[in-house]
Amino acid sequence: MKRTTFIQIPHPKTFDFNQCLFFMDRGYDECLYTIENSTITKALTVGDKPVLFRISSVRHSKLQIDVLSGYSPKIITVLGLYVSKWLDLDRDLAPFYKKLGRSNACAELTEKYKGLHLINIPNLFESICWSIIGQQINLSFAYKLKRRLVEKYGTSVQHQGKTHLIFPTPKSLQDAVPADLKIMQFSKQKINYLLTVANAFNTGQFSADHLEQLPTMKARQAKLLSLKGIGIWSANYVLMKSLNEPDSIPFGDAGLNKALKRLGIIKDRKEVQKIEAFFRPFAGWQSYLTLYLWRHLYGQGLVSNKKHEGQTSRQ
Q: What end-to-end distance do the CA atoms of the chain give, in Å?
């Protein structure tokens, strides 16, 4: 009897795979997944085994996940849960679109980008490291630094002549030599921050389970802020991307401020009260509003390889 090496998972009617593909493939040097022929291919460590899988859109509001390497019966269920979290498939955006429709400034965003869901980072350690890597530099350079880090300290899966990279574990990054990171063009501060975070995870001082068990967003935010190198922007970014906090706004984000200016909400990034007043009616959906404002920076196309320089937003 032939084994089943794929699973189909449902998605809400408000989900558009092509909108998500566009946002994930904006021309940067992304090293942790590959987009080709309207599919996403990604490697992942499940337990202690590397797995390679591919996501495609099929009929009847479903995504298909094909296991390309590392198959086991248990893997199918794990990958289904992972992809659901990665692409935020359990969320119906209809209430969000109603709020957008009531906003004079944002009503157009629904029709332009309808179906775009948050592209999360399920791996909390990766999310925190990414927020540190991107501090005070443009997005293109941040992706280059991430690739250097992953190629040096991560693992990989070989498939049909291609290498698919997996983000480093806390243990592998904790053992990194600072001089090697300096050669990769990491600043002294970022080297210190990354090694400190890796040590906190590796020794059990910090973990996703512990963070998720804290009772409030403020408590989770405070816990993240206790990590050296994590400020309010990084904490809110991580809360949005890894813990699905619905009202986690990375205030001060360069891309967010640029989008607000484009929509005429503010003229200057220092107009904090105007920004807060603008977000207030979107309570429960402020993270999604941030996503749609980021998306607005890239125009209406669904296919683009243009690089956008000079943005410090990590998105």
A: 45
- Give the residue-averaged pLDDT of 17-30: 94
| pLDDT tens by residue, 222-234 | 999 999 999 999 9
Q: What pLDDT is attached to residue 313?
A: 52
pLDDT of residue 82: 97
Q: How many helices (H) and strands (E) does the chain have?
A: 15, 7
Number of domains in the chain: 1
pLDDT at 3: 59
DSSP 262: H
201 in a structural domain: no
21 in any annotated domain: yes
Helix (H) or strand (E) segment spanning residue 68:
strand 62-69
Domain that holds residue 54: 8-90
**What would the two tokens of residue 121 be?**
């980072």
The pTM assigned to this predicted structure is 0.92
Angle at which helices 124-133 and 188-202 cross, to 10°:
170
Exposure string of 243-266, with b = 16+ CB inside 10 Å and e = fewer, is bbbbbbbbeebbbbbbbbeebebb
Look at residue 299 in the predicted model and tell me its pLDDT.
73
Does residue 14 belong to any structural domain of this protein?
yes
48 annotated active-site: no
* Under 8 Å between Cβ of 53 and 44: yes
Using N-to-C axis directions, what is the helix angle for 94-101 and 286-296, rounded to 10°?
70
Please give the backbone phi and psi of residue 81, each rounded to the nearest 5 degrees, phi first: -65, -40
Using the predicted structure, report yes or no on whether residue 201 has a pLDDT greater than 60: yes
CATH label of the domain that carries residue 61: 3.30.310.20
Beta-sheet pairing, 6-10 with 34-36? unpaired
